[in-house]
Amino acid sequence: MKVIVTGGAGFIGSHLVDALIERGFDVIIIDNLSTGKKENLNPKANFYQEDIRDLEKIKPIFNGVDYVFHLAARPRVPYSVEFPHEAHANNAVGTLHVLISARDAGVKKVIFSSSSSVYGDQDKLPLHEEMISTPKSPYALQKFIGEQYCRLFYELYGLPSVCLRYFNVYGPRISFDGSYILVIGKFLQQRLNNEPLTIEGDGEQTRDFTYVKDVIMANILAAESDKVGKAETINIGAGNNHSVNKIADLIGGEIINLPLRQGDMRHTLADIARAKELLGWEPTVHIEEGIAEIKKWLGLDK
């Protein structure tokens, strides 16, 4: 079985590549290494250093492929706020190019990595897939556009797909690059540098944090499940949320507070009933265990 993982040198993508190879899949990676890292590349995969913004370059790579896991993106809300054009080209146009390539190659199914940020601020929690999306940032809007492209490509061309809405993924290989990293990555980097942990706002904003191993299993189940393929949106989260203050406490260290940045949601919490029903998936790693594992990976458990 031949599969493509776009963004396969990135944090989540590289874990997915490893898992697929362990299961005997013939894996192709497409990654321009703008945020992915060479050291994340699995040597048993076929690697193409190409950019999903270049349709003519990536299209031939899709020939003979069974499944496409589309993770390549220019991530993070703050980056998209500062550079909306660049983020759109990567996240919206790039996704369109992946879908065109998959359609023309007769791919069996596309598994699209979306984001809980598409919900925006909602009056009620937990967040469920039938809520009307109200994106608060270009990144969130671009992920929503990707979902809608998946829906249209199924309705117009019969290309099967499923859209997984991730909730704050963390684990080994989490990105420390730039100023746009997730809060867990930021805290870990500060801890490694013996710097204070910087909390934006009062720290009582909450997130549903999802361990990367659980996200990988969701992707594999989405490819295998015969219950999905009509561009369904499915939450992939832990089903519980924790404050930024709690995460800082688990990581440990001095704390200072900074002004709250714009574009972020105040609270997230995933309703994961649809994932259980359609994928037979549920999370297995609790936040305390996950933080302990990532601290061990970084040598911060000593």
What does this structure look like?
38% of the residues lie in helices and 18% in strands. The longest helix is centred in the first third of the chain and has 22 residues. It is globular and about 55 Å long.
Q: Give the CATH superfamily of the domain at 2-170 and 211-237 and 272-279.
A: NAD(P)-binding Rossmann-like Domain
CA distance, first residue to last residue? 42 Å
Count of beta strands: 13
CATH architecture of the domain at 2-170 and 211-237 and 272-279: 3-Layer(aba) Sandwich
- SS field, number of helical segments: 10
Please state the average pLDDT score. 95
CA-based shape:
globular
By secondary-structure content and strand pairing, the structural class works out as alpha/beta
Instruction: Please trace the helix and strand order, writing H or E for each element.
Output: EHEEHEHHEHEEHEEEHEEHEHH
**Remind me, CATH topology of the domain at 2-170 and 211-237 and 272-279?**
Rossmann fold
What's the gyration radius in Å?
18 Å
Biggest sheet strand line-up: 3-2-1-4-5-6-11
Estimate what percentage of residues fall within beta strands: 15-25%
Query: Which ranges are low-confidence, i.e. pLDDT below 50, for 5 or more consecutive residues?
Result: none
| Main sheet record | 7 strands, parallel
CATH class of the domain at 2-170 and 211-237 and 272-279: Alpha Beta
Percent helix range: 25-40%
